[in-house]
Structures are given as C-alpha cells and as structure tokens.
Amino acid sequence: MLVFEVLWQYILLFVMAATPWLEILIVIPIGIALGLPPIPVAIVSFIGNFLPIVLIVYLFNWVQQTNWYVRRKKKKEIKKQEQSDDANNDKKATKKERASAIFHKYGLPGLAILGPIVTGIHLAAIIALSLKANKSKTTIWMGLSLILWTIVITVGSFYSIDWLTGLF
To answer: In angstroms, rounded to a whole number, what is the distance separating the alpha carbons of residues 77 and 104?
Structure first.
C-alpha cells in the first residue's frame, strides 16, 4: 500500500508540473513538503514541466494551420481594424506588442529564464514561437531555463522547509 501511495504522489507531481500556471515553482515545494526525497521530486517535476514544452514547440505550426486558428486570427484582425479608428487604442500597446518588446530586448534566453516567474514557461514558449523563434533553440533555452529553476527551487525548498521544521 505504501508503494502505491508514493507512486501516486509522484504521478500527481508530474501532472501538476505539466499543468500551465502550476509550474515547478509550486510543485517542487509541495513535493518536498510532503516528505518526498528532493532529487526524485526535482526530476519528476522537470520532466512534467518540460514534456508540454516539447509538445507546444513541435505542434505549434500544426495548430496555426488548423481551420479553427485561421478563423480566430481573421476575426482578431477584423476586430483590430475596427478598433484602430479609436484614438485611445493607439496609445495602448497590445499584449503581443509588449511581449514582442520584451523578446526583442532580452532575446530568447531572457524570455526563457524569466518565463517561469513572469508568464509561466508554457506561455513563454508560445510567445517565443509566435515571434518566430527557432524551434530547436526555443526547446533548448526553455529546457536550460527549467534545469536552472529546478535546481534553484529544489535547493531553496529543501533547505527552507528543513529550516522551518527545525524551528518547531
């Protein structure tokens, strides 16, 4: 029964890490707080967070070619043209323009490293790809960023939880 419980906890960590907006920033501390060993928690969380990135990167072009996406894009263009007549809209930057400015200022490495804390790594990958970043470079930079964040969060979580339990 104990083996099943531990396996179930790792499966839940994997699914939570793969879920956008939960990310490793939340999942690793939860796993360590549950008393699971930090290295397996880090590995499972990394894999759970990285696999959706690979799917996003390599399915992005296919999604852009679907009828649903083409219709959605046309509707947005029509709406944008209708709103361009409004004087207030000229002053406001769209989300894509702001993301584009960040991408052009810091590049793919900056977006990848800041992604987990600013937008979430999944959304950072989508932003990079929509701004015409190279697929393999996007995958590599997002992976390197996740490795870095996984190490930092695992070490920080392990020692902070150890320190907190030492207080009580």
So the answer is: 23
Which has the closest alpha carbon to 144: 102, 165, 114?
114
Expressed as residue numbers, the domain containing 149 is 2-65+94-157
| Tens-place pLDDT, residues 133-146 | 999 999 999 999 99
Tell me, yes or no, if the pTM score tops 0.90. Answer: no
Residue 15 lies in a domain: yes
Q: Is residue 123 part of a domain?
A: yes
What confidence category does residue 94 fall into, taking pLDDT thresholds of 50, 70 and 90? low
Interior angle at CA 133, CA 131 and CA 150, nearest 5: 110
Q: How many domains does the structure of the chain reveal? A: 1
The overall average pLDDT reported for the chain is: 84
Cβ atoms of 147 and 46 closer than 8 Å: yes
Residue 108's nearest CA partner among 138, 149, 87 is: 138
Would 76 be classed as within a structural domain?
A: no
SS3 for 64? helix
According to the model, what pLDDT value does residue 14 have? 95
Evaluate whether residue 83 is within a structural domain. Answer: no
Give kind and range of the element (H or E) at residue 154.
Answer: helix 135-167
